[in-house]
Amino acid sequence: MQPSIVGSTSFGILWTKTYLPKERWYARPLVYTPPGQKQLVFTASNQNWIRTVDAVTGAPINARQVQPPFLQSDLGCPDMPDFIGIVGTPVIDPNTDTAYFFAKGYQNNAASGGVAKGTYK
């Protein structure tokens, strides 16, 4: 970034959002502009929520829970508290406007089930 941009009065936080109480974002947000459309911010959380918001205003555009997240208590590993859902940063294919990611949950979209019933979508 150029110092003249960073030092200008137009540079800074445009908006903030609050979501679910124990929702965390290990995956980095992606900024994407589909051809002929407005710029979006795409987020994916540890609770398997994917969301798109307007990059300028922060207005919600879409939101969806892919599947219930995997419970950290089923692993007993304290590295990631509470839920293990989408933890890797997604990739967007600009040729198809498709986002690709892994979401950890349980078979048949169950809300729990132990390690043996864990699955990735």
Question: How would you describe this protein?
Answer:
The structure is a single chain. By secondary structure, this protein is mostly beta strands. The protein is 3% helix and 30% strand. It contains one helix and ten strands; from the N terminus they run αββββββββββ. The chain has a four-stranded antiparallel sheet with strand order 1-2-3-4, with no helix packed on it. Strands 5-6 form a two-stranded antiparallel ribbon. Strands 7-8 form a two-stranded antiparallel sheet. Strand 3 and strand 4 form a beta hairpin. The longest helix has 4 residues. The model has no long low-confidence stretch (mean pLDDT 91).
Question: How is this fold's topology laid out?
Answer:
Elements: H1 3-6, E1 30-32, E2 40-44, E3 49-54, E4 60-65, E5 70-71, E6 83-84, E7 91-93, E8 98-100, E9 104-106, E10 118-120
Antiparallel strand pairs: 1-2, 2-3, 3-4, 5-6, 7-8, 9-10
Task: Using brief descriptors, characterize the structure shown.
10 strands, two-stranded antiparallel ribbon
Percent strand: 25-35%
Proportion in helices: under 10%
Strand arrangement across the biggest beta sheet: 1-2-3-4
Q: Kindly name the structural category.
A: mainly beta
Tally of individual helices: 1
In round numbers, the mean pLDDT is 91
* Distance linking N and C termini: 37 Å
Using the alpha-carbon principal axes, give the shape: elongated
